[in-house]
Specification:
CATH topology of the largest domain: UDP-N-acetylmuramoyl-L-alanine:D-glutamate ligase
CATH class of the largest domain: Alpha Beta
Shape: elongated
Distance between the termini: 5 Å
Oligomer: single chain
Number of strands: 17
Strand order of the largest sheet: 8-17-16-15-14-13-12-9-10-11
Strand content: 5-15%
Radius of gyration: 26 Å
Amino acid sequence: MADLMNAHTALLDVRQMSAAIRLTVAAGIPEGQLAESAGAAVARQIEQRYSARSVTVLCGPGSNGGDGFVAARHLAEAGWPVRLALLEANETLPEELRHHAEQWHRAIAPLTPAVLEGAHLVVDAIFGSGLTRALGGSAAETLAAAARMGVPIVAIDVPSGLMGDTGEILGAVRSVLTVTFFRKKPGHLLLPGRSLCGEVVVADIGILPSVLEQIGPGTFENDPELWISHLPRPRDDANKYMRGHALIVGGYPMTGASRMAARAAARAGAGLTTIAVPEIALSIYGAALTSIMVQPLAAPQELDSLLSDRRFSALLIGPGAGVGETTRGRVRAMLATGRPTLLDADALTAFQDDPGSLDRVIVGPCVLTPHDGEFRRLFDPSGDKLTRTRTAARRSGAVVILKGSDTVIAAPDGRAIVNANAPPTLATAGAGDVLSGIVLGLLAQGMDTFLAAAAAVWLHGAAANEFGPGLIAEDLPEQLPSVFRHLYGSGTATQAGIA
């Protein structure tokens, strides 16, 4: 991977975040100073959003609780009415918490629902990502009571009861704001946990960015920073042939899916786009497409002849293709070329009876774009989304895009990207076909498969956001020029990627 010093979108799991703190402390920055900065950052974010009001700070017995003590002290010093409650208040305080508790010169109440009386704001500093089991006891009862009362909750690190590595919910309730430190965790982006985090703010508390070099994160939040320096741009001396030629194998009688994919490939920058279609469907495709070329296939073997043309730089099959032996044969033929090939929809389902046979014929750059149902037909569906997508990519040897509101893109070498810019309006028929077309268009121009997949997923979400309510799949390709305009004018092309 390239310069991780600039990987602002790196996601750290709980173990890696602990390592980041440990390495920073070893470099000479006291852990107490980090906690002081963390609690002060939480108080600052609260003060920026709310006027002074009665606040109850719920503290746990670990470092998250220490951050809560510091936040409570800063709010109290700013004149806020603060009530602090501590889980297991009668127990001997651990060393990491004792120092912060000694600086709190006010009452400490037991953590029970009773401490919420009169509260207009609650700070959840009970466990954060340090919890490895389901939330229970008085902690769960108190947070549930706060949720029932409708009191806004601000979480430190992650809402207690939300698994930072996976986004799994084990008793957490919804927060309006989550303040985390240094880098986000996967659980801030993966569903269902993301829905409970509210606004997520990443605060700088003095952890040294250089620790990333030792940690070597392999998971990132999707952002142009990662891939824009690799994004193809038309050159002054370029012609249409230099911009790549995308080939799509279209289907019949389902013709709309591949037509939308073709239009998206062209909008994504492919210099030429061709759809090869059954001869019976030639008039349907020809009447609906103008700048997209249509090539009739009178017999199955004619695809082999077409594939022998080296000018086709990237290939797609799946949308509307059907799930029989004809599709399986075409998939094998396309993969055998060694050229970047994208398999979607029917091209994936066609191998559901023998998924290993698909793995064996993936010999070159390949992208698979399953939704959850298609994924279950080919891969092990157990485990969290990040883990199972990584496992699928490693097994198949392909880049896997597991689609959804929290799309995960994984490479065979273990790198993974979590996407979070997709609006709910993308839940519409044909949107996945457009995504495949965008990936294809970038691949046709020579973009790396992993980065092309990540860029396409982000562009897909950005196009949907650009259009807004009322979106249908046909609208997405038409929004890409505007999205590209914003990207090219953003000045981020000089920032480092992760390839």
